Structure formats: structure tokens, C-alpha cells
Automatic annotation (TrEMBL):
PROSITE patterns: AMP_BINDING (PS00455). SUPFAM superfamilies: Acetyl-CoA synthetase-like (SSF56801). The lineage of its organism: Bacteria, Pseudomonadati, Pseudomonadota, Betaproteobacteria, Burkholderiales. Residues 314-334 are annotated as: Disordered. Keywords: Ligase. This is AMP-dependent synthetase and ligase. GO terms for molecular function: ligase activity. It comes from Paraburkholderia piptadeniae. Pfam families: AMP-binding (PF00501). Residues 8-308 form the AMP-dependent synthetase/ligase domain.
Length: 334
């Protein structure tokens, strides 16, 4: 089994179904399949050999989804950069895992020159923004346009898939190595127990994709073949508008995000009838917030996901309509 398997299946069986939606952009599974294969080929030409690290410093976008799949397709290892880090912390992580390519969006463009000049091994810089590529950087879109698609490397098992860095609160951040089997087995265990990865679910990404919680959910939806709706960052008004507009069925929020959504003035005015599940985690949730959520969102299932930041999270189930806390816990994957 391999992490790109769902993309192959959906490109074959439902090529015209929406795969990723970001703002006014939308791409089908057929389009995503082609862009992933071309971006993988471009990165291989730029030095991404088997097992080489590729980093992305960016807010959430459709391109972040493509980045994850393309690196795995091409045989590389993803190194999602913590968007809250300083330049020094970013450079440390790039040096520590010997990153060969760094993809950057508009939001972090002002940091690029200092990062590149400070890194022990200057990475190839790819601009994944909305304008023309600045001097010294390659255009993400032009690389896809001008590169022929390559075959999937079909890496899997104990092959390294991701390096996720700890927060560095008690010292230097540490790179935690996740194999393809780590990501795959965690995904399959969640699919087997909760049976909510239906292959037609519309899922909203509002939490940052550099974090394992959001990335692991993305992997689950890659595997099932679900539709990804992506917000660049969390905004309660945008979350409510997006749920209504795209008929979102599930999303992941940390408790403070959930509280902000519940307390937003637009909450009662938006049509949230398609919403079926909310995952929450990253910090304890207060009884007051959970009880309020259960009361104002009747019929929705709530799942508590837990785990250390760089490790795989594992959800517990709490059923809406009850004030009981999460039940039937499963042990976190190691």
C-alpha cells in the first residue's frame, strides 16, 4: 500500500469529481493527478532523489495538498515547516534534515533571502505564490506547465515519508521520522473503526497543514478519495461561510477555534445542515464549550483526537446529544 493510491483510484474511477477547492480555484481528481505527476518530475530534476527532503513554508492552500502528494509520488520526504517559527528555527530544521528544496508562498516571501543565505546547504527555492516568481526563485506553476509527468515511485512500508519537528520548548526542535507505514496504518485503523472515510465526504482544512493533526487527516482523505476544501488559515467567519457554500461535512478544530465559531455573530445565520462531524484536539476542551457545541449542533458527532505534535493522532468518539465525555478510547499510534 502507498500514500498516493487513493489519487490513482479516483483519477481512474471518478476523474471529474472535485478533489481540491481553494478560494475560487477548484481541480478535479484528473487534474490533481496530472499536476502531482508533473510537479514530482520537476522536483526530481531539481535534485529530489529518493529519500531527499523537501520543505514547504506556506499557509494552507491547494498547492499544499499537491506538495504532499508530489513529494511522495516522486520518492521524496516531506518536511512541513512550522509557520510560527523564527528564521533561525526554520534554518535549524532545514540544516538538521538536509533539505534540498524549499517551497514558499507569498506570506513568507520576506523571509526567503535570509533563510537561503543562512542555511548550510542553500535549498532550491520554488515560489508558490500568486504573482511572478522573484529573482532567484522558480515558479511553481511554470514548473508544472513545462515538465512532463513522471511515474509514481510507489514508495511505502518502512520508507521514510515525513519529518515532523517538535516545538522546541525545552531545547532545539527534534525531527520525528514518520514512515509510510506509520501514516498508512494510522489512517487505516481510523477508517476501520469509525467508517467515516466514505470517498465522497467534503472535508474542510482550517487547521494548519504543517501540523501532524491536519496532515494526518489529509492522508486519510487522500486514501478514501474525499474532497478537500482548504482555507489559508483559521477565521471563524470564513469557516462558517465555507461550510455553507461548499456543503462541508466535517472539519478539525482546536477547542479555541471551536469556541470562536460558536460565539461568532454569523453562527445562527449560516446553514450548517450538511455538517456531520467535528474533530477537536491539540489542547483540553472545557466542559462548557463542549456542552454548548453539543446543544447548538444537535446530531453532529464529536471526536477527540490526541497525540504529541509530531506523532500520529488517534481519535476518541463522543456522541452528540450527550454530555458524556469521549468514550471507547483507542491507544495512540507510536
Amino acid at each position: 500500500m502507498y500514500l498516493t493510491q487513493g489519487l490513482h483510484r479516483c483519477a481512474q474511477q471518478s476523474p471529474d469529481r472535485a478533489a481540491v477547492i481553494f478560494g475560487e480555484r477548484s481541480e478535479t481528481f484528473s487534474e490533481l493527478h496530472g499536476r502531482v505527476a508533473r510537479l514530482a518530475g520537476a522536483m526530481q530534476k531539481l535534485g529530489m532523489k529518493t529519500g531527499e527532503r523537501v520543505a514547504m513554508l506556506a499557509l494552507n492552500s491547494d498547492r499544499y495538498i499537491e506538495y504532499l502528494l508530489s513529494v511522495w509520488w516522486g520518492g521524496g520526504v516531506v518536511n512541513p515547516v512550522n509557520i510560527r517559527w523564527s528564521v533561525a528555527e526554520i534554518v535549524y530544521s532545514l540544516d538538521d534534515c538536509d533539505t534540498v528544496i524549499l517551497i514558499v508562498d507569498d506570506h513568507f516571501l520576506p523571509m526567503v533571502a535570509t533563510i537561503a543565505d543562512s542555511a548550510r546547504r542553500r535549498p532550491v527555492l520554488i515560489y508558490a505564490g500568486e504573482g511572478s516568481a522573484p529573482a532567484g526563485m522558480l515558479s511553481y506553476e511554470q514548473l508544472i506547465s513545462y515538465t512532463a509527468p513522471v511515474d509514481d515511485s510507489f514508495r511505502g512500508g518502512d520508507d521514510l515519508a515525513a519529518i515532523m519537528y517538535t516545538g522546541g520548548t525545552t531545547g532545539q526542535p527534534k525531527g520525528v521520522m514518520q514512515s509510510h507505514l506509520n501514516l498508512w496504518s494510522s489512517t487505516v485503523s481510523r477508517m476501520a473503526e469509525y467508517r467515516h472515510f466514505e470517498g465522497t465526504t467534503v472535508s474542510l482544512h482550517a487547521a494548519p497543514l504543517f501540523h501532524i493533526a491536519a496532515m494526518a487527516r489529509a492522508v486519510g482523505h487522500f486514501t478514501a478519495g474525499d474532497t478537500h476544501v482548504v482555507l489559508p488559515s483559521f477565521d471563524p467567519s470564513a469557516v462558517l461561510e465555507t461550510i455553507e457554500r461548499h456543503k462541508v461535512e466535517e472539519l478539525l478544530l482546536v477547542p479555541t477555534m471551536l469556541q470562536a465559531v460558536l460565539e461568532h455573530p454569523d453562527f445562527g445565520a449560516r446553514d450548517l445542515s450538511t455538517l456531520k462531524r467535528i474533530y477537536y484536539g491539540a489542547s483540553p476542551i472545557s466542559a462548557a464549550v463542549l456542552d454548548t457545541a453539543l446543544a447548538v449542533l444537535p446530531g453532529i458527532e464529536f471526536f477527540h483526537a490526541y497525540g504529541l505534535h509530531p506523532s500520529i493522532t488517534q481519535p476518541q468518539r463522543g456522541l452528540a446529544g450527550s454530555t458524556a465525555r469521549p468514550v471507547a478510547p483507542a491507544s495512540a499510534s507510536r
